[in-house]
Design a protein that fits this description.
It contains five helices and four strands. It is an alpha/beta fold and 179 residues long.
């Protein structure tokens, strides 16, 4: 039995990501393999079990970077693709009782998010945290992994039984400023 598949993968600058004029082919391939291909293959192998039991939940973690100004092209592209894939897989598997949803975290206070920017921007941890906190309307603080985890728990719960193919932004309202 397989009730939940939670695809939470991501790499960016640490994997060699860069702006479009500087990205290397090997870095592009590595980031896409980790951020997108791993999700595709995990879903491919989970679906036969979920279809057999006529139920299941898949949650894919994307990023608000998919639709905002973001300097690292491969990460952005991979997270936009994860959202698009979520919608298609949801449509194809709804008749089998399988719900497929996406979470797009915004600014998060995690080692990957903060440490990568410290190095890339030559800033201290405190400077990076203060700069990112200031961009979040709700409470003036970045979110945490717990905020994303709680969103995932909701999406796989019975309370979300009529929700599939959606993208839930977990960003403290920052998306309201985009555009």
């Amino acid at each position: 039995r397989l009730d939940i598949l939670h695809n939470n993968v991501g790499i960016s600058v640490a994997g060699g990501d860069a702006e479009i004029s500087k990205i290397e082919g090997d870095a592009f391939d590595r980031i896409m393999a980790i951020n997108l291909k791993s999700m595709v293959l995990a879903i491919k192998h989970a679906l036969p079990v979920m279809r057999g039991q006529q139920s299941g939940n898949i949650v894919n973690i994307s990023s608000t970077a998919a639709h905002e100004d973001y300097p690292w092209v491969t990460y952005k592209a991979s997270k936009a693709a994860a959202k698009a894939m979520t919608e298609q897989v949801a449509l194809q598997n709804a008749p089998h009782g399988i719900r497929v949803n996406c979470i797009q975290p915004g600014l998060m206070n995690t080692p990957m998010a903060v440490d990568a920017r410290m190095d890339a921007w030559d800033m201290t941890r405190e400077e990076v945290v203060a700069m990112r906190d200031a961009k979040v309307p709700l409470g003036g603080k970045m979110g945490t992994a717990w905020d994303v985890a709680n969103a995932a728990l909701f999406l796989v719960s019975d309370e979300a039984r009529f929700i599939t193919g959606v993208t839930l932004m977990v960003d403290g309202g920052a998306h309201c400023r985009i555009g």
